[in-house]
Amino acid sequence: MTLHVVATLPLGIRRGTIIAIPGLSESAESLHATAVHWSDRGYRVLAIDPRGHGQSPRWSDEQLRRHPGDRIVEEIVEAVEEWCDESDQPLVIFGHSAGGSAAAAVAAATRQPAAGVILEDPFWRLPVTPHQDPLVAKVAAQWLARQKGLTDQRRQDEVAALHPRWPVDELAGWSSSKAEMDLALVAHGDVIPSRPWPVLLEDLSKRGTPVLIITGTVRVGNTTNHRAIERSLGAEVVVLDGASHFVRRDDRDRFHAQIDGFLARIGA
Fold it and tell me: Is the Cβ–Cβ distance between 37 and 11 less than 8 Å?
């Protein structure tokens, strides 16, 4: 097995499996609180560290010469097909930010059909392009380099001050994921799949896969224009007023309630 996975298991009968993919510069550990919520409701949760994240392998110079976002998807698809079989149905795929982009592409590519896809403020460029703006990647790498230079406590203190609505149990996972993140991937910038995201949504629609997108209203990547396209392609889009790009941390109860309702509607 190439990628690191954190499994959170239900105590009773398994209702299904949720594959959870973190955002850029985050990790499987940073999904712990939400994984516990789902496992308490009967799901086996497999939180994945994509290459360069958490405890998964780093990127070599040779690997970075090929589109990294596409390789991330390929490796996660391989992992899902290795870990999951018919006993895991219904299978649901979740992703946040760049992990949301990967989640949509994984669900469109797996032989194991997904019963549903859940995307937390997915990172989708508009205008649609397969490549990151080099300046955006440079700024992101500079930010991450600074985070890596801080102590764990300093990182936690700073993010708590910046996001006072976040539950305390989110801080440690957020901080450790910055220390573990592969700076080379962030500096490269091409962290989402090259297949255009509207085409991915069309692919999922053709497969009959329901898609729930949850976003907010404060410094989010999923704009009004994104939402119009997403809805036109059959996705259900929920906007939680006052939440930021980190919806599940800013408004945990409403975030979980929206997903619980979605899972019930699709029979998962």
Answer: no
Looking from the CA of 105 toward its CB, the CA atoms found within 13 Å total: 28
Which residues are 239's β-sheet partners? 215
Quick check: 16 pLDDT over 90?
yes
The identity of residue 52, as a single letter, is G
- Residue 109 CB contacts under 8 Å (≥ 6 apart), including other chains: 73, 77
3-state SS of 128-174 is CCCCCCHHHHHHHHHHHHHHHHCCHHHHHHHHHHHCCCCCHHHHHHH
What distance in Å separates the CA atoms of residue 162 and residue 142, rounded to the nearest whole number? 18
Q: What angle do CA 197, 67, 110 make, to 5 degrees?
A: 55
Read off the tokens for 134: 């080099």
Q: What is the SS3 assignment for 102? A: helix
pTM here is 0.97
State the DSSP H helix or E strand holding residue 46, giving kind and residue range, or none if neither. strand 43-49
Q: What pLDDT, in 10s, does the model give residues 121-133? A: 999 999 999 999 9
Q: What is the C-alpha separation between 173 and 187, in angstroms, rounded?
A: 22
Short-list 130, 127, 141, 124, CA closest to 52: 141
Mean pLDDT of the chain: 96
Percent helix, strand and coil across the chain, each to the nearest 5: 50, 15, 35
Looking at the 3D structure of the chain, how many domains does it have?
1
Domain limits at 259?
4-265
CATH number at residue 103: 3.40.50.1820
